[in-house]
Amino acid sequence: MTNLYDLIIIGAGPAGMTAAIYAARRKIKFLIISMDLGGQMGWSSDVENYPGIPDLAGIELVKKFDEHMKEYKIEVKSEEVLKLEKKARICVVKTRKKVYESKAIIIASGKSPRKLNVLGEEKYLGKGINYCATCDAPLQKGKTVVVVGSANSGLDACLFLSNYVKKIYLLDIAPKIVGEPYLRDKILKNKKISFIGSSKIKEVLGNKFVNGLKYEKDNKINTLKVDSVFVEIGLMNKSDFTNVRKNRWGEIMIFRSTITNEENYTNIPGIFAAGDCTDIPAKQIIAAAGEGCKAALASFDYINKWK
Ligand SMILES: Cc1cc2nc3c(=O)[nH]c(=O)nc-3n(C[C@H](O)[C@H](O)[C@H](O)COP(=O)(O)OP(=O)(O)OC[C@H]3O[C@@H](n4cnc5c(N)ncnc54)[C@H](O)[C@@H]3O)c2cc1C
């Protein structure tokens, strides 16, 4: 089996890229397959919470990870994984172009924010369209913003943003706030926040940057003047290609054993997972990078014992 890799890493976000750096240093035979380089990290207009690099555009941080990977000879395939299966002891990865085989796998396929799919959304990405309030709220000082989606993540976003912005419109297609009552009560008490229910976004408006949006309510089109739009309608899992065990939100369940020191194991031996595609609560760049490191170390242990 000459084409058998020791390890295949699926995804090149911070989790996958970190795992790749560790694998390269271990000098094992490995491959990284990813649809893009950087993952969600490239979506952030400013990353201000990555230790050692106080403030950098997400895309610049991706370049730094990439430069670090280029210190080593790493085989990167720009392909989409369609299926991952385990056949006897071999992990089989199918893309549109090829079938790859390995002893072990690290799934680091992350998530992607659910989009509004309206006119202007793509055009103003990074120019007023945001998908992460935790990351981008401090950049909104004194602005008027709209948060789309009134489930818990939208309500959290509103409360966090209210520390920075002048005014928040919270907009939802539902007639009433859908998040949990204790959060809803906080929102209703906050004088900066106005709820607009039964409303559907039709278009994001702007020149160079976002300056408003059109929404439909009671069969009428209205315009709202805002400086930024925060889309908080959920994240989509990107691990449908595998049937490893997942929780009710579709996140890969990580199995940890304090007895055997197992880390980042899934329910299938030899298949490891790291970062946002898993059930870890911290969905952040530094956490994903740390999980990528842990998954790599765990996989080396598994590969060493593979017969
Ligand atoms: C707009 C935005 C701003 C953010 N800002 C910050 C911030 O300021 N600070 C912070 O700490 N965190 C921030 N985050 C969160 C952070 O980016 C994520 O937690 C982190 O990127 C997760 O890393 P990951 O490697 O697990 O997954 P991802 O970054 O999602 O990477 C997944 C990778 O897998 C690839 N992939 C997926 N499916 C397949 C497939 N089938 N085949 C091949 N490849 C596949 C993708 O192309 C991608 O390369 C932000 C997120 C968003 C959306």
Q: In CATH, what is the homologous superfamily of the largest domain?
A: FAD/NAD(P)-binding domain
Note the run of SSEs as H and E.
EHEHEEEEEEHEHEHEEEEEEEEEH
Could you say which overall geometry the principal axes of the C-alpha atoms support? elongated
Which CATH top level class of the largest domain fits? Alpha Beta
Q: How many strands?
A: 19
Helix content: 10-25%
Beta-strand content estimate: 25-35%
Total number of helical segments?
6
Architecture of the largest domain, CATH level 2? 3-Layer(bba) Sandwich
What is the assembly state of the chains in this entry? single chain
Give me the Rg, rounded.
21 Å
What is the structure about, briefly put?
The protein has helices at 14-26, 58-70, 133-136, 152-161, 181-189, 285-305; strands at 4-10, 30-33, 76-77, 81-87, 90-95, 99-107, 111-113, 129-130, 144-148, 167-171, 193-196, 199-206, 210-217, 220-224, 228-231, 235-237, 255-257, 262-265, 271-273. With 307 residues, it is α/β, with parallel strands linked by helices.
Describe the structure.
- This protein folds into two domains: 4-112 and 235-305, FAD/NAD(P)-binding domain (3-Layer(bba) Sandwich), CATH 3.50.50.60; 115-231, FAD/NAD(P)-binding domain.
- Helices cover 23% and strands 30% of the residues.
- It has helices at 14-26, 58-70, 133-136, 152-161, 181-189, 285-305, and strands spanning 4-10, 30-33, 76-77, 81-87, 90-95, 99-107, 111-113, 129-130, 144-148, 167-171, 193-196, 199-206, 210-217, 220-224, 228-231, 235-237, 255-257, 262-265, 271-273.
- The strands form five sheets. Strands 1, 2, 3, 4, 5, 6 and 19 form a seven-stranded mixed beta sheet that branches. It has a five-stranded parallel beta sheet with strand order 8-15-9-10-11.
- β13 and β14 (220-224) form a beta hairpin.
- 41% of the residues are buried.
- The structure holds flavin-adenine dinucleotide.
- Residues 10-16, 33-36, 39-41, 43-44, 47, 49, 80-81, 108-111, 113, 131-132, 135, 238, 241, 275-276, 283-286, 288 line the site of flavin-adenine dinucleotide.
